[in-house]
Amino acid sequence: MPEHDWSRFQLRIPVKADKNAIFRSWTTPNGLTSWFLREADFMDVQGKEKTGDRLIEKDDTYTWRWHGWSDDIKETGMVLEVKENERLEFTFGDAGIVNIKLTEESGDNIVELTQYNIPTDPGSRINYYLGCSKGWLFYLANLKSILEGGLDLRNRKVELTNVVNS
Fold it and tell me: How many CB atoms are closer than 10 A to CB 8?
């Protein structure tokens, strides 16, 4: 049996929504806070903040915070690529790079998330490979729920810990 590749994983989910709506959910501060984050702060290369529905661009930097976590828990990184309605790629702290690809298959819009360049030491296998894949599974399901007219499934209470929805 071949050894498992701990340096990458891929997740796919069909979303019954307009491709542009899916894309903007990933590429605007308002979009990201609608299903994923509590705060999505972006700065362009000139140091100007990007807010609201302004599209992010290559080389923008970010600071993200999640519902259910205190302000000292944050992720910072950089946008590596943006191709409208097709692709987004960004660094994800020490956990590697995340690539989002939007495609159509059998009449459905597919969101494909690949996280790669994940360190493969034993701690990273647990924290980044297993931890991130578990987190992304939930957030992709929440993206689908929100865009298809469903509920926001996120835990918003800092005092509720060790739950799958934060």
Answer: 15
Query: Phi/psi of residue 101, each to 5°?
Result: -125, 130
Place of tokens 């297993």: 130
SS3 95: helix
Distance separating alpha carbons of residues 28 and 45, to the nearest angstrom: 16
**Which tens digits make up the pLDDT trace of 86-142?**
999 999 999 999 999 999 999 999 999 999 999 999 999 999 999 999 999 999 999
DSSP β-ladder status, 97-105 and 108-116: antiparallel
Which CATH number is 8-147's, of 3.30.160.100, 2.40.50.100, 3.30.530.20, 3.40.109.10? 3.30.530.20
In this structure, the number of other CB atoms found within 10 A of the CB of residue 3 comes to: 5
HSE at residue 131, side-chain half, CA atoms within 13 A, is 15
| Cβ(161)–Cβ(135) below 8 Å | no
For the chain, the straight-line distance linking the first and the last C-alpha, in angstroms and rounded, comes to: 35
Residue 10 near residue 114, CB atoms below 8 Å: yes
Query: Do residues 6 and 95 make contact, with C-beta atoms less than 8 angstroms apart?
Result: no
